[in-house]
Amino acid sequence: MIIMKTKPGKSARRTGITVLFLTALLLSAAFSILAQTPSETPPPPAEPPDLTLPEVSEQTLPNGLKVVVVKRSNVPLVTASLLVRKGASSETKDKAGVANMTAELLTKGTAYKNATEIAQQIEFLGAGLSTRAGWNGSSATVFVMKDKLGKALSLMSDSVIRPVFPEKELALFKKQALDGFSVSMKQPGSLLNYVAAAYAYGEHPTDGTPETVKRIKRSDLVSFHKRFYAPGNSVLVFAGDIAPETAFGYARLFFGGWTRDGSAEKSPPDEVAAVTERPPTVRRILVVDLPKSGQAAVGFANKLEAGRNESKNAYFAATVLNSVLGGGYSARLNQEIRLKRGLSYGARSGFSWRSYDSNFIAVAQTKNESAGQVAELMQIEIDKLIEDSIPDDEMVPRKAVVTGGFGRSLQTNNGLANQLSELYAFGLSAGELNSFTSGVKAVTAKNIRSFAGDNLAGGDMIIVGDASMFLDDLKKRFPDHNVEVIESSKLNLNKSTLR
Predict the structure, then answer these.
(1) More exposed terminus of the chain, fewer Cβ within 10 Å: N or C?
(2) What CA–CA distance (Å, rounded) separates 420 from 408?
(3) In 3D, which of 416, 68, 429 has the Cα closest to residue 234?
(4) For domain 282-490, which CATH number applies: 3.30.830.10, 3.40.190.10, 3.40.50.720, 3.40.50.1980?
């Protein structure tokens, strides 16, 4: 009898090779089966759940400051955001940027601490303190662990109530702003936004222009702060792990001594004559020639008469319309311009709301050679909203995008505080948050078509780029329009040419 012996490990190696071979065969068979199985149509989006927020508690201090509290105990964090209901809309065009500069310099020195001390103490607390100004209002926001909230609020209130606007910090901020302008004025996308503000909306940019920033003095900041930073003109929102009684106590302690008066009212604009006939979709074509620019920015901009305070139905119709047109990756503009034709990395649209009117823009960046084509595609998609009804199989998922994004925005303390602050900026109640989902659900294709017909037509098509590379093609695509060309070096962003 002969017994054959193998070297140690040889059998194990053989077994391993066999297992790998069998595994490869099984995987190959599985992929073959999958390849022969027809792909299933993904299920439609489920009905969005109704969102019910935690109870909102409100109290107005004797000095007129409204305090709003939403308690959420899932994490030991608190966000406190102070909204001052005055922003860039309250500054003059010759001093455009004052509101933004005032807000930015709040934390750069107070009667008791300099900029370095404020920054160091906020960092020591592991907190974040930010200030900003928009068109409708200005704000200061702090987020911190709840056991350090008192110290953080002390720093925030000192910055808001007792800023000194040091000349050194002002000079540094102006230099940085002017350096930023020197870059942004050469970037097609940034320059388009400035042009839209002046030429299409009849406004000034919230951060000003190089000319206005140069002429702003410390006395302008002091004056703006004295006029508009007032408790009667402000709302303090707490969101997070804090009881209403505790929040009200903090508000009285740190803001109760704030005594200036203020008014949050804004007069409605002058009446505009009714339009009896719908204007063409594109009212004017403006080309800003930026020679040797790497790309072109294309935008359709329009000033709308529909305001945030005027009609809830209009607001919700506009919100769903935007989701359909340019509010995401699957929206129409991105589908047509990026996914189908590869002309841009992304196309989008959006509304900037004011109390009594709003600004709308659709925008994309593309090769200079394809700027005319992108402009034409934008007009076509806007025309579709005006002339055609949106099918249900498109409306349902686009509404889901809106309600899903809204729900996600409420999952953090900062997001919840921002949503509440926006409502109070327009004088609306916190209860509006609970009705958002039902408002979106109620929007019909007829509502959107009506809103589009009443508001989107009559806008300006603005293209910023190397005009030599697209001007002839643009004129061929828009034969019935006069194309106005302005050299970028000759732009006047300080004078409105709205109409």
Answers:
(1) N
(2) 14
(3) 68
(4) 3.30.830.10
